[in-house]
Amino acid sequence: MQIQVIKSKIHRVKVTGADLNYIGSITIDETLLEASNIIEGEKVSIVNINNGERFETYAIKGEKNSGDITLNGPAARKVQKDDIIIIISYATLDFEEAKTFKPWIIFPNENDNSLT
After folding, report:
1. Annotation: CATH topology of 1-104
2. Residue 73 among known ligand-binding residues
């Protein structure tokens, strides 16, 4: 049997922009992608702390150390600049393997989205 478990989590980052006219996705600072083990194109779930919205999109790489967290396309309607969100990705694992799997969870600074 296989189950889905949390693979990666960027806990509480500040939205820096929302671009309705972009084709879609979430732009995430490359430093945060690397630290959380999320790759470009990976499906992610977004949880908006400010308004309770939950939705899915895919990650694209933003400029390294920029703090960029921008929701693009239709997802831009579900956030506002300065909202606090959680970004989560999941993996499908064998049940026994899932029991010992350790996810990558990071806690950036909410003020500037840095890891320091």
Report:
1. Barwin-like endoglucanases (2.40.40)
2. yes
